[in-house]
Amino acid sequence: MKDWEATIDVLVIGAGVVGLAVARALGLRGHGVIVAEATGGIGNGVSSRNSEVIHAGMYYPSGSLRARHCVEGRRELYAFCESHGVPHAKCGKLIVATNDLEQAKIEGIYEQGLANGVEGLAYLTAGEARALEPNLACTGAVLSRETGIVDSHALMLALQGDLENAGGVIAFQAPVERITRNGTGWDVHVGGSEPTDLTVDAVINAAGLGAQALARATEGYPEDRVPPLVLAKGNYFGCLGKPAFSRLIYPAPVDGGLGTHVTLDLAGRMRFGPDVEWIDREEYEVDPRRAESFYASIRRYWPGLPDGALVPDYSGIRPKLTGPGEKAADFMIDGPAEHGLPGLVHLFGIESPGLTSCLSIAEDVAERLSA
Predict the structure, then answer these.
(1) Shortest CA distance to 11 belongs to which of 226, 249, 217, 171?
(2) Fold agreement (9-49+153-227+329-370, 90-147+229-320)
(3) Record's superkingdom (predicted)?
(4) Is 228 helix (H, G, I), strand (E, B) or coil?
(5) Which of 62, 176, 267, 341 is the most buried (most CB within 10 A)?
(6) DSSP per-residue string spanning 284-353
(7) CA-to-CA distance for 135 and 137, rounded, in angstroms?
(8) Where exactly are the structural domains of the chain?
(9) Which residue positions in the chain have pLDDT lower than 70?
(10) What CATH number belongs to 9-49+153-227+329-370?
(11) Tens of pLDDT along 301-348?
(12) Closest by alpha carbon to 29, among 337, 303, 362?
């Protein structure tokens, strides 16, 4: 195995926010880094189809990778955005209840947040919540002051800039098809219009929806370590008219997601989503008929939503490891200490809060690779 006190050559597969963050972290450590991206640009997969929310970290079980990386990653991400001029806003959010069952849920979220070390949480009565957001209807709410929003594409451009300043490069239109062990490192076959073979010391699989297929195309990686890929589509609807809220508004969580919530972009425009639509193939069309369920969900906490205000916007797909009715899986970061193959890390199930967690995940991957 290579001496990690010296520099090595690493291939990172996938130029989404996590792949770019991992590549940057390795480049800043002095390693030679190539990123292989199957499409023609950065962030064209999961990273470009989300809410662009910086999560605080109160939803996830204590001790989980999601809890650890969300809390640590959020702190690192705000500092990175400040130092690199990435547009962002710490707007805060309210997690709201509209009945006794939901009240118990958000109380549990509040306690979980405290256990996870999340700063800036407060439990509000209905009156206190409405004083902050007069259009809101609720029986109580949790205020998260540390939640924010970020320009995800600007973030990825900044990560790319740091990577390239460290000597790293990105190869676009470069789909990886096969990864083979060569004794001291890895031989990687890249397809596309200009097929080529690379020899590197280490490989990081950050391919998002394609991670499981790449793991199966990795020689020597045990088939039984590849988790299932469950596709959970999240649809978003835009909202006509002036924004009704100045903070993000989240209902109590639902099976598979955090509920149909209000998100804001940096221009103050309001949109709703994502919902959870379990699918069996990758497709992104937003069915306008889903607006009916959106109206019903939203009006529980915003009764004033006008008829005809919702318009189909976009959708994304969460690369989940568990399906309907199953307990949400943790991030899976499978490195040499777990599977026994030197110089190889597979990342599976990096869904929300993956964007928030990207810088912390990157350091984790670098540490696992050098262990």
Answers:
(1) 171
(2) no
(3) Bacteria
(4) coil
(5) 176
(6) -PPPGGGHHHHHHHHTTT-TTPPTT-EEEEEEEEEEESS-TTSPPPPPEEE-HHHH--TTEEEEE---TT
(7) 7
(8) 9-49+153-227+329-370, 90-147+229-320
(9) 1-7, 254-258, 371
(10) 3.50.50.60
(11) 999 999 999 999 999 999 999 999 899 999 999 999 999 999 999 999
(12) 362
pLDDT, tens digit, 9 for 90 and up, residues 287-314 = 999 999 999 999 999 999 999 999 999 9
Task: Give the C-alpha separation, 153 to 313, whole Å.
Answer: 18
C-alpha distances in angstroms, 350 versus 18, 221, 305, 369?
Answer: 8, 19, 33, 18
Residue 276 has which token pair? 């959870």
Find the length of the chain.
371
Report the distance separating Cα 22 and Cα 156, nearest Å.
12
Of the candidates 317, 316, 305, 150, the one whose C-alpha atom is nearest the C-alpha of residue 239 is: 305
In sequence order, what are the residues at sequence separation of 6 or more whose Cβ sits closer than 8 angstroms to the Cβ of residue 153? 43, 48
Q: What is the pLDDT of residue 139?
A: 97
